[in-house]
Amino acid sequence: MWNPLSWVMEVAAIMAIALANGGGRPPDWQDFVGIIALLLLNSTISYIEESNAGSSAKALMANLAPKTKVLRDGRWSEQDASILVPGDIISIKLGDIVPADARLLLEGDPLKIDQSALTGESLPVTKNPGDSVYSGSTCKQGEIEAVVIATGVHTFFGKAAHLVDSTNQVGHFQKGAITKRMTAIEEMAGMDVLCSDKTGTLTLNKLSVDRNLIEVFAVGVAKDEVLLFAAMASRVENQDAIDAAMVGMLADPKEARAGILEMHFLPFNPVDKRTALTYQDVADGTWHRVSKGAPEQILELCNCRDDVKNKAHAIIDKYAERGLRSLAVARQEVPEKSKDSSGGAWEFVGLLPLLDPPRHDSAETIKQALNLGVNVKMITGDQLAIAKETGRRLGMGTNMYPSSALLGQSVHESIVSLPVDELIEKADGFAGVFPEHKYEIVKKLQQMKHICGMTGDGVNDAPALKKADIGIAVADATDAARSASDIVLTEPGLSVIISAVLTSRAIFQRMKNYTLGFMLIALIWK
């Protein structure tokens, strides 16, 4: 038995026979035999449990094996990274962990790669077409195709791992979770705050558009055209929920690329919060660009007049009151006919309402968490009104604030005088947050002596997942989120977390009962 508690018991057993009780009495053989018997019994039970669980843990880990998009037989498909061989063409995008050493192809955007785990560099490194990227590093920005040049032990990471020749212990739950750090189970028993991302965690992340509520701002543009522009600025193969929803609303998904030639696609990233497609019209050869994204970013991009901004904000608030997200669409001419040119003035085309319904079990899960003494806080990048509406539906409260409140810039009179620490502790959640805000919220809660859990699924959740006492990556999380977490869920939603909390608390209750029982027996024995 290799854990501190067993070591203490072994030392106690040795002391029982090594030290006399005084008065000429012999060593305490009864305690020695009792402790050794308990250790043997515990070892036997642990061995049997781990043996029985081995196949289950392997199956769960197989489900979480790193995936990658690879070009085989002229078609893109998602495959296990383990099947890659030198010469394969792979796709690398935001949030992916590079599955093998590869050389970037000549066509594509520069990447921002975090290779700190390999080289010790603290900041992401820019990788241009023709440069090499290493297995195990994480893509922080950009999208490009690459050719595999080394796999397995022949990679930069594999050579280092071969020298170290070490493995990490991995535990398991039988209810759809894998533990990467065993002490996280101990900490989960005392967890009193759970910070949760909204999209994809509390909600389904399966969006749909209400056509009747589409608002058009551009002259001579129909509602269906606004939807078409949004679909054009999408890529289904990126497996993004919004992109899939936009293209899925078309009668035929092929309409999104009908009559045009794609010249360049700008993928979504957490900073710009938009996508863009530069294309050539086959009919007349003119170049155009369409973009969709967060309304604030698109409105700023278009440099709209104040009256247009006020109208847009009023519509966004109307959507938010109904629990709808807003997606803005813009377009521009590209007279220079170059993908790198800034193009003409952007025109604000319209707004689309998106609905992301809560998971069927989220409300019940939050209720159970509150009954267990775990306070659930929503931390989302969505707008404040949407966060409040989602919180109301889930029964987790509507006492939520914008991220500006974390910087002491809140316009709410009721909280102006509150210290940031107290505000974070009392709030039900925060909206419009960036990755650094999530990190700071978790950090502040820890400074106030809370045992803080964090759930998430995206790249923007990774810093907070790493910082939290218990980082929990939900099902279908990005590779970056999984790597930063302590526990990886294999089933959707948060209900598995409740099972984990109950399991960890049951373990500690058994330990408490055992200790009290042993002390009682010892007193009776004496």
From TrEMBL:
Signal sequence annotation: 1-20
Annotated InterPro entries: ATPase_P-typ_cyto_dom_N, ATPase_P-typ_P_site, ATPase_P-typ_TM_dom_sf, ATPase_P-typ_transduc_dom_A_sf, ATPase_P-type_domA, HAD-like_sf, HAD_sf, P_typ_ATPase
Topology term for the membrane: Multi-pass membrane protein
PROSITE patterns: ATPASE_E1_E2 (PS00154)
SUPFAM superfamilies linked to this entry: Calcium ATPase, transduction domain A, Calcium ATPase, transmembrane domain M, HAD-like
Pfam families in the cross-refs: E1-E2_ATPase, Hydrolase
GO MF terms held by the record: ATP binding; ATP hydrolysis activity; metal ion binding
Primary subcellular site in the record, as a coarse category: membrane
Sequence intervals crossing the membrane: none
Domain P-type ATPase A: 64-164
Keyword vocabulary terms for this entry: ATP-binding, Magnesium, Membrane, Metal-binding, Nucleotide-binding, Phosphoprotein, Signal, Translocase, Transmembrane, Transmembrane helix
Localization per Swiss-Prot or TrEMBL: Membrane
GO CC term (a single one): membrane
Family to which this protein belongs: Belongs to the cation transport ATPase (P-type) (TC 3.A.3) family. Type IIIA subfamily.
Name of protein: P-type ATPase A domain-containing protein
